Known about the structure:
- The structure is a single chain.
- The protein is α+β, with helices and mostly antiparallel strands.
- The protein folds into three domains: 20-193, no CATH class; 206-347, no CATH class; 356-434, no CATH class.
- It contains 17 helices and 13 strands.
- The protein has helices at 51-57, 61-64, 67-73, 142-158, 196-204, 208-222, 231-256, 306-325, 328-335, 338-353, 363-377, 381-392, 398-401, 407-421, 426-434, 444-455, 460-470, and strands at 20-21, 33-35, 45-49, 85-87, 90-93, 96-100, 106-113, 119-125, 140-141, 164-176, 180-190, 258-259, 281-282.
- Strands 1, 3, 7, 8, 9, 10 and 11 form a seven-stranded antiparallel beta sheet that branches.
- Strand 5 and strand 6 form a beta hairpin.
- The longest helix is centred in the middle third of the chain and has 26 residues, at 231-256.
- The chain starts with 19 loop residues before the first strand and ends in a 29-residue tail after the last helix.
- GO terms for molecular function: AMPylase activity; ATP binding; magnesium ion binding; manganese ion binding.
- Its EC number is 2.7.7.-, 2.7.7.108.
- InterPro entries: SelO.
- Pfam families: SelO.
- ATP binds at residues 102, 104-105, 125, 137-138, 188, 195, 276.
Amino acid sequence: MDVDVAPASSAPPLVRAPLQWQNRFSRLGGAFYARIAPQPLPAPYWVARSTRLGETLGLPPHWLASEEALAVFAGNAPLAGSAPLASVYGGHQFGHWAGQLGDGRAILLGEVLTPSGEGMELQLKGSGLTPFSRMGDGRAVLRSSIREFLASEAMHALGVPTTRALCIVGSPAPVLRETVETAAVVTRAAPSFLRFGHFEYFAWRGKTEELRALLDYAVTHFYPECERQDVAETACTLLAAVTERTAELLAHWQAVGFCHGVMNTDNMSLLGLTLDYGPFAFLDAFEPGHICNHTDVYGRYAFDRQPEVARWNLYCLAEALLPLIGEPERAVQALTPYPRRFAAAFEARMRAKLGLTDAQPSDGILIDDVLALLVRERVDYTIFWRRLSQHIAGDALAPVRDLFLDRLAFDTWMLRYSERLSSISRRQSAALMLKTNPKYILRKHLAEEVIRAASASDFAPLARLQTVLESPFDEHPGCESLADFPPDWAAQLQLSCSS
């Protein structure tokens, strides 16, 4: 692969930032990527920044707000020490093999070593055409960039493993989607952007040597505990570790009410991170069959199907590793713990939502029954759990009870729940619940409102929403409207793969 794009003779000078680069992925060689520089974005302007992530990376707020930083994260100026590239991968999309994919509108600037000693890759999404853009234009739009920025930082604040977002740079440059929109670039960060699809690509092409190199890279840098003397055993151990992380991630998604929307294998992180925020959503009313992506006409990625889809995707990863593992039975054995690990992780998270500091055999029934009640009554998922938390902390029960039309059914469940709590410190339960059940989530209508304001060059609502999402368990006086029920018009919002 190793396509090099020479800089123009009038290229801007290098920008220096307080970053220490190590760029380990680029050492894999040209079969894994194409070297390419970001394409300049005309008339760039700041839309949003995460000073919290900036501090994690070692970037002081004054630099992150500078004109130099604006030029770098617009793709208009090269960053000293970076090694820009677009990686190649494949993947199954909506259950079908899609062949070669790759970073079609994302360019990896490189990997930095943070002050804490952790490696973090920085990637510009929407930075122009790459050799893997296929029929796309290589750009992202303001709408989707705002959604990804807010979702990344909101999920991080909720404790869900995720890629992060450093900033958004906007531009008046037109981009054609369903309508003409304006361009934007979001800077993403993650320990690694390795996907299941990276392994699928080389397996699909019969490139066993490159597959082995990718395995060695993943194990050496991210799963050192999986290294074994035997290659097949190393691959099996890695597969088992990825299976565990994926099960934990999906349990977290289901517990917090998060719908990904496009769980293709090229959107599955090898590190068990939430990757690629396209048509995602947090549940309003608790509806297990909710489909957040209107492109998903058959509901393959409906909310309640996510755990099983993740398992299917793990089988695709196992198939990609078979040239190294050899025996299919060994790969299947590595995947076997998934259902048990997911169920245990999900029940543990639901116990925490209920403030249960110990485990009892009957807890599963208590959890199933309250979820069934939420489904039958179409109760708002986030508001129910937060009001229940506040009741356990000392507030009246009425605000919780008022969420249900069938008061008798709720009272019956509440009596059982109260009996279960009787042997637990009320203070401990309340403390656990208030740090587990958020008051603020990124609802569709909230994202839509800040997108509309930002499209009119008003970024204050975006900054306000970002502030509450960065600490979603706190109260934030004056921001109660951001935690209220969604308006009726929110039900009409539709999201697709277009971005």
